[in-house]
Amino acid sequence: MSLDKKAVRAIAELARIEIPDEDLDHLAGELSGILQFVEQLAEVDTTGIAPMSSVADLTLPLRKDEVTDGGQVAAVLANAPDADDGFFTVPKVVE
Amino acid sequence: MIIQGDTGDWEIVIGLEVHAQVISKSKLFSGAATDFGAEPNDQVSFVDAGFPGMLPVINEKCVEQAVRTGLGLKAKINLTSVFARKNYFYADLPQGYQISQYDMPIVGEGTLLIDLADGSSRAIGIERLHLEQDAGKSIHDMHPSKSYIDLNRSGVALMEIVSKPDMRSPEEAGAYLTKLRTILRYLETCDGNMQEGSMRCDANVSVRPVGSTELRTRCEIKNVNSIRFVQQAIEYEARRHIDVYENGGEIRQETRLFDSAKGETRSMRSKEHAHDYRYFPDPDLLPLVVAQDFVDGIQATLPELPDDKKARFMTDFGLNSYDAGVLVAERASADFFEQVAAGRDAKMAANWVMGDFFAAMNSGDYSWEKPPVSAVNLGKMIDLIKDGTISTRLAKDVFIFMVETGKDPAIIVEEKGLKQVTDTGAIEKAIDEIMAANPDKVAEVKAGKDKLMGWFVGQVMKATQGKANPGMLNELIVKKFQE
């Protein structure tokens, strides 16, 4: 599978990464190379093997339903570029 | 529901996605609290705020609640399920992705029975139920140029419950939401409060010519916050589609917003490119595996669900489908009714609970924890009617005194002297007095004007302050006139 300029532009937009037009060709080549590298895995015969979503042979540990966190407004907002009255504030999101 | 267009008849195809907030003390992947109405950002852990290096650890209660809901919807429980990242950017989504489930949800296909106004029921398919995180809350009206973000809701567990496109009218959609809410409340997995946003609904709507089985392009109407608005939005949207098709146009798949003030839907342009979520398994989370024993243990603790309860009320108590349906709509009302009806005339108990009791409940600041009249006292009052101490008519007064004072009905009857008069002599004496005072009317009745007999009944009732036993009074008056 190879990506063209248009696909790279769409992916960049979804990821909110600004890419100048002159870089698109180069990136399309690099990304296609990565995809081709990964596609080699398709050569392995996986007939009869259940799809895995993790390579670790472990299952998810569960925690008890207890309130153990929170009550730290100042710490939560400490790195916020902008905050007011306990809220994060951002440039207005117009709907 | 069939909509008549200019070119023919159309049918609506509706599927609903409900986001139900899970009842749990702490969040899906963090130990921060979930209570509604806390100070902004006071219930936020670094996990919920998407700080670098923070790792999610799943809350077992939320898993249990999802399985419980799945069992309540008679659905397949997937013992292995997988969490995935749904990627999108929004100011109230600090991680830049929502942890959700994609191709391996915790609950698979199920069924929900909806009850329609004509007394019939219909099965609606459930496609899936999955667990996911809620986002934070954006407030747009606190500042002219800024949006305010509160992350208290960020990370609270949601169950997204997706129906199959099985509904064909706004009425069916409303019945589905009503029934789903009832089941969630019976199970105590979600409080079902649409105003506070703990149950939110997105509707997928398309139309097709009657007789066709195709599925045409659908539009998704987001976050409508009451059942009535969902129904209005669906009807508006269906008519819009028909207009577009009949004028030779095409429907574009898009997300739309319902404007309840104008009663119309409109395109949400901001969501135009949002459909590419690039899901992938969350590398921070291993597959969720639950044991069959865990599922069986939950199954064993399921309460009697509304459909079963309704059927039992109809067979055991001889109630009709409508009455049984009203009483089981809330678990608390069903329990209340059962307490009142125990060992008594169930139809009479149902009438009192659904009549005077519901009216009193709605007229003041009451709740099931603090009802206007206790089930014990209402039951005792019914006993007093049955043994002839009070008539149904007097019982209405006793009921009002019970609401006012909370006293035992027997004490009220004693104190207020509301005992009905069943002494034949006393009633006869009252009749004689009224007859003696109104010879002209007596003559009219004797001349054949039977309707006037009712007037005599009323007068005697008045003279006895409503205490004359109505059955005996009627009988005695007829006898008097025959003499």
TrEMBL record, chain A:
The EC number(s) this enzyme carries: 6.3.5.-
InterPro entries named in the record: Asp/Glu-ADT_sf_sub_c, GatC
Top class in the EC scheme: ligase
Gene3D superfamilies, per the entry: Glu-tRNAGln amidotransferase C subunit, N-terminal domain (1.10.20.60)
Keywords of this entry: ATP-binding, Ligase, Nucleotide-binding, Protein biosynthesis
Matching Pfam families: GatC
Catalytic activity: L-glutamyl-tRNA(Gln) + L-glutamine + ATP + H2O = L-glutaminyl-tRNA(Gln) + L-glutamate + ADP + phosphate + H(+); L-aspartyl-tRNA(Asn) + L-glutamine + ATP + H2O = L-asparaginyl-tRNA(Asn) + L-glutamate + ADP + phosphate + 2 H(+)
Self-association and partners: Heterotrimer of A, B and C subunits.
Protein family according to the UniProt entry: Belongs to the GatC family.
Function statement: Allows the formation of correctly charged Asn-tRNA(Asn) or Gln-tRNA(Gln) through the transamidation of misacylated Asp-tRNA(Asn) or Glu-tRNA(Gln) in organisms which lack either or both of asparaginyl-tRNA or glutaminyl-tRNA synthetases. The reaction takes place in the presence of glutamine and ATP through an activated phospho-Asp-tRNA(Asn) or phospho-Glu-tRNA(Gln).
Listed name of the protein: Aspartyl/glutamyl-tRNA(Asn/Gln) amidotransferase subunit C
Organism of provenance: Magnetospirillum sulfuroxidans
Automatic annotation (TrEMBL), chain B:
E.C. number(s) listed in UniProt: 6.3.5.-
Protein name: Aspartyl/glutamyl-tRNA(Asn/Gln) amidotransferase subunit B
HAMAP family cross-referenced by the UniProt entry: GatB
A Pfam family annotated for this UniProt entry: GatB_N
Function (record text): Allows the formation of correctly charged Asn-tRNA(Asn) or Gln-tRNA(Gln) through the transamidation of misacylated Asp-tRNA(Asn) or Glu-tRNA(Gln) in organisms which lack either or both of asparaginyl-tRNA or glutaminyl-tRNA synthetases. The reaction takes place in the presence of glutamine and ATP through an activated phospho-Asp-tRNA(Asn) or phospho-Glu-tRNA(Gln).
Annotated Asn/Gln amidotransferase domain residues: 335-481
Assigned protein family: Belongs to the GatB/GatE family. GatB subfamily.
InterPro entries the record matches: Asn/Gln-tRNA_amidoTrfase_suB/E, Asn/Gln-tRNA_Trfase_suB/E_cat, Asn/Gln_amidotransferase, Asn/Gln_tRNA_amidoTrase-B-like, GatB, GatB_C_1, GatB_Yqey_C_2, Gln-tRNA_amidoTrfase_suB_CS
